[in-house]
Design brief:
The structure holds two protein chains of two kinds. By secondary structure, chain A is an alpha+beta fold. Chain A is built from five helices and five strands, in the order E-E-H-E-E-E-H-H-H-H. A five-stranded mixed β-sheet of chain A has the order 2-1-5-3-4, with helices on both faces. Chain A is globular. Chain B contains twelve helices and twelve strands. The chains are: A alpha+beta, B alpha+beta. Chains A and B meet through strand 4, helix 3 and helix 4 of A and strand 1, helix 1, helix 2 and helix 6 of B.
């Protein structure tokens, strides 16, 4: 049996297969969330969503289905929208993670998309709203918010059981004209 | 989810070496059930690990390996680690290989497309509810030899082509239908170097062993897909019919590419999705159309040929007619496309 090259040799907590003695040992994970570094010790199975909610205390990202089907856990990694429930926290290291708590400006001024959701009453219960807003911010930044049909298609990964869809569509259309620059700028 | 060891690999070779090391010469289960798994986007892997359908002992993280899109006169080369959304939005793919861009864009949601790699996408596992729910004792794909609960169960989503007495689970993907229609090849990185294979030979029909889904070994990794250029790729489209308009798996789909010579079809390429157990090439339908004038009648004849071997059960027989109509509509739509010469 040959060992992998030394630079890929198992690290503590990263040992391989049968060669490991304790797969339950906590592993160090560093996450950068909304501009703040967090040094955590996590069970390797911890998803990014659980790390945010249970370990860092940012409960804005919601756990709906926990199966990648509802979009409530949507967060941004380097500006790209992904699902926190299907991302291992250990695999989110090295990315700039943005959650709903990181959208508003330092002075508390709402992001144009947050304001648009309020202006258009784009929710009822609000549970899907953090995911909707982050998805919508990315949708505009991607250039996928040019037509009503595009917005509906590219927002389809965020389910709203209150069916606020027409108002969400209106909110995205309002914010796209204000959200001048791609990215996460607060204003 | 059960505990696992985690290892991050920065290159395909390192990933393969890590897999060989972690497998430790152990008698190897076929990849879907193997104790060592690669993870990139994780959109299928973590989902199935949470459901306890998959319980690898070791995960090898390949998400940091770079993937690139290369386009030349000979065709297209798509690195396995390219994310679905990046290929779907690529302007040249959208123009010259619209079928590929559409098959990716109409799959999943943008969040999942941002995560999922092309290599992982073609290996996506079935959505059969009996496979995904471990409280059902019978599933030959999950527990070889245990039987198939879908045969007598709620089989509305299930396949009508390529089925066996052991399994009728539908292959869920979309991109694969485009790859098989366009005669793509797949590059596979393994401990003994790189091998190439027709994409059509990657997946195995269920037969008696539905747990063996591909010809990949547990220590092999998809490196890239190559799609040969051809006069038919620009006149191509992917039509997907679903229960809801977006963010749903196909009930029936058709990937169609045509090369026209006046009103007649010089070349025809057809892949079918949502109706078969594996990515499906409809060669009989292609043969029925080659050299013919494209109209509703000839398209219908081809659709009949495509589904001549279809086998429906209690709840999914509607897919046979739906599949035929989907193919007819896709063919006529491709024929009407305005394609710059």
């Amino acid at each position: 049996m040959s060992l992998p090259p030394s630079e890929h040799a198992p690290q503590p907590g990263q040992s391989l297969g049968r060669h490991t003695s304790d797969v339950r040992a906590l592993v160090p994970v560093r996450l950068r969330v909304n501009g703040v570094e967090h040094a955590l010790e996590l069970d390797i199975r911890t998803t990014l969503l659980d790390a945010l909610r249970e370990h860092i205390g940012l409960t804005g990202s919601k756990k709906g289905c926990d199966q990648g089907q509802c979009g409530a856990c949507t967060v941004l990694l380097d500006g790209r929208r992904v699902l926190g429930c299907l991302t291992l926290a250990v695999m989110a290291q090295g990315f700039e993670i943005t959650t709903i708590e990181g959208l508003a400006g330092a002075d508390g001024a709402l992001h144009p998309m947050q304001q648009a959701f309020i202006d258009h009453d784009a929710f009822q219960c609000g549970y899907c709203t953090p995911g909707q807003i982050l998805s919508a911010v990315a949708c505009v930044a991607e250039g996928h918010a040019n037509t009503d049909a595009d917005i509906r298609e590219y927002m389809s990964g965020n389910l709203c059981r209150c069916a606020a869809y027409p108002n969400i569509l209106a909110a995205v259309k309002q914010a796209r004209s204000v959200q001048a620059h791609p990215g996460m700028e607060g204003a | 989810m059960r505990p696992f060891a985690y290892h991050r690999a920065e290159t395909p070779d390192a990933a393969v070496k890590a897999a060989v090391y972690a497998l430790d010469g152990e008698a190897q289960a076929p990849p879907p059930g193997a104790p060592v798994q690669f993870i990139a986007g994780g959109t299928t892997m973590l989902d199935l690990m949470k459901l306890d359908v998959m319980h690898p002992r070791t995960l090898i993280d390949i998400s940091g390996i770079s993937g690139s899109i290369e386009i030349g006169e000979g065709g297209l080369r798509l690195g396995a680690l390219v994310r679905m959304s990046d290929a779907a939005d690529h302007p040249v793919i959208r123009r010259d290989y619209p079928m590929i861009a559409q098959s990716l864009m109409l799959a999943a949601s943008q969040q999942l497309r941002n995560m999922a790699s092309l290599g992982g996408n073609v290996l996506q596992r079935t959505r059969c509810a009996y496979f995904r729910d471990v409280t059902y004792a019978q599933c030959n794909k999950r527990r070889p030899g245990s039987g198939c609960a879908a045969l007598q169960g709620m089989n509305r989503q299930h396949a009508v082509l390529g089925t066996s007495d052991a399994c009728i689970a539908t292959y869920p993907g979309d991109f694969a239908q485009a790859l098989i229609a366009l005669d793509a090849q797949v590059e596979i990185v393994g401990p003994r170097g790189t091998r190439r294979l027709a994409f059509a030979d990657l997946h195995r029909a269920p037969g008696e062993r539905p747990d063996i889904e591909t010809v990949l070994a547990a220590d092999e990794l998809i490196g890239a897909f190559t799609v040969p250029a051809g006069p038919w790729t620009r006149r191509s489209l992917y039509l997907k019919i679903r229960d809801r308009q977006s963010y749903a798996f196909a009930l029936a789909s058709a990937a169609v590419a045509l090369e026209m010579d006046g009103g007649a079809m010089r070349e025809v390429r057809i892949g079918l999705g949502g109706v078969a157990t594996i990515p499906w090439r409809a060669r009989e339908a292609e043969e029925a159309l080659r050299g013919k004038v494209l109209d509703e009648d000839s398209a219908r004849v081809a659709a009949e040929a495509a589904f001549a071997g279809a086998h429906g059960l209690e709840h999914n027989s509607f897919k046979i007619e739906l599949g035929k109509r989907t193919l007819v509509r896709a063919l006529l739509g491709a024929g009407r496309m305005e394609v710059p010469q």
